[in-house]
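Message: I would value a second opinion on how I read folds in token form. Give me a protein, with the fold worked out from its sequence. Write it directly below this note and I will take it from there.
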Amino acid sequence: MRLFLLTALTMVAFAANSILNRFAVDSDAVDPGSFAIVRVLAGAVTLAGLVLLRRGQMEFLSARRLAGGGSLSLYLIGFSLAYLTLDAGAGALILFGVVQMTMFAVTSLTGAPPSGRQLIGAGVAFAGLAWVLWPSEGALVDPTGAALMTAAGIGWGIYTLVGRLEKDALSGTAANFVVALPVTVGGILVITSDRYLSTEGVALAVISGAVTSGLGYALWYRVLPHLATAVAGTVQLSVPIIALLSGSLLLGEALSMDLALGALLVLGGIALASLKPNS
């Protein structure tokens, strides 16, 4: 039960992070590149401060750290810039679909393939997500945005896999953010030059970086070693559903039958992939 609650809290943090990012950019409070920069900076400062307060240590020079920091940067840059041209539904579908496929592919190649039940559960959950989020009425997905979100999904999938090897979730996440900071800033500055900031935009980015990203990712790294890789990939398909339901409750958006059916499929698929059959 404790693992379930911690995992659920992590998914809520991920969904809250998406809502903060979307609201800040859509309200023109901040541009996507600046949001990503402030986000990673706030996360790095907060997590490094917590590590120093407990007199811990951060490891920077290792293959695991390069993989963690590099994949985190890839996710942050791709995620922020993709929403310049993608609508929220198509973006979420691409991101979490690619995350799941990346994790399944890597684990299959490394000798730990998912079981048939886990594959079926993942398929059911992905079908539910597609039912809710797939663009309708002939809407086209921008290829540049799709490529950026695909890169973000690969980055987050690798980041998740690397996290299974972390012995200290807080120190590892803090070091990843510190390593990702210069890479993310450099990438954003090279790719885009549009900058506009407001007090509200900076505040939203700081909350996103320090709380829903930094602390949320540290919690994710803590629960990852206790989850099967296939389960860790499938359970993240709940994030877009949580975000849509939260938007309906907090922003007054109407709930539809498609949303209800899709949410049931996603949750049912996650349960099928996660729960152990009775012996």
